[in-house]
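Pipeline run #58 for the internal structure catalog. This entry was flagged by the ingest filter as a single-chain record with no existing model, so it goes straight to prediction. Upstream metadata was stripped on purpose; only the residue string is passed forward. Reviewer on rotation: M.T. Logging verbosity set to normal.
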Amino acid sequence: MEFCGWEKWIQPDSLVAVKPNLCTAVREKCESSNTDPALVEAVCRILRTRTKRVVLVEADGLRQTAREAFEASGYSQFTRELDVDFVNLSEALTARTNLPPAGNIEFPEILLRADAFITLPVLKTHALTYFTGALKNQWGCLPQYDRILLHKYLDPLLVSLHRVLQPRMALMDGIIGMEGRGPTNGSPRRLGVVLASQDSAALDVTAMRLVGLDPTQARHVVLTAKAGLGQDDPTYIHVDGDWARYQTQFQPAVLDKAIAAMNYMSRYRWFVKYALEQDHVFYPVRSAVLLLRRLGLIEGG
């Protein structure tokens, strides 16, 4: 945080919105899927030395509320101690905001008026975006619990979110990352690192290189750099740290036919409402797909 010059852009009484990655409320998956509570607490403690107006933010998902993920991840105790509020973006006031190519959609008003936005992602692979880090973590700022309907715009919409949010700093949780079937069903990998930058694209590129992934495969990162919102050329990215000590090779996520089909069908509201949102439909189909993967009948088993 000192390297990123945080004290220069956090003034007394600044409103600081901090976005951890809270993508699951399944306790046994939280350690490798969600941002480590120790990292979030440390960041909040430092911020509270400058301002009392620090809030953690997250939106509901299809399978859990933001509050459920918050509680399952073990954030309650330190937020009470530090007097840090948690804001469920799906319940917050919104304002119509232009987010191409989706157009004018409802967006949390608190994020539009925050003096600083900080993102705290987890270093993970992702079946749809190849990699999920600082840029992809901002997808959870969309308040619509069924934002999966917007997946048809996923990569360019992530660019628009980055343009609106303008994060002042990104700190990536690589304490325990995830490879393979990320962002929630992959294999945990303990790296023991935290990466930070004021340039989210440069951070994502560097994290991918650190774990042996090809940054050019993450289309949302490439598009962000092309829009002039970050650096994706390693030649111009200075890395301050023991690179050789932590460099490794992650297994990439596989976009198999089942995931590709679900992603395509998720553009239809009736499919999301009557299939993905219905436990009696979703879980039996999911179990069948897992069985087919184990039998090797679907790529990525």
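catalog note: The chain has 14 helices and ten strands.
catalog note: Strands lie at 16-20, 54-58, 85-88, 94-99, 103-108, 116-120, 122-126, 130-132, 169-179, 187-197.
status: ready for reviewer M.T.
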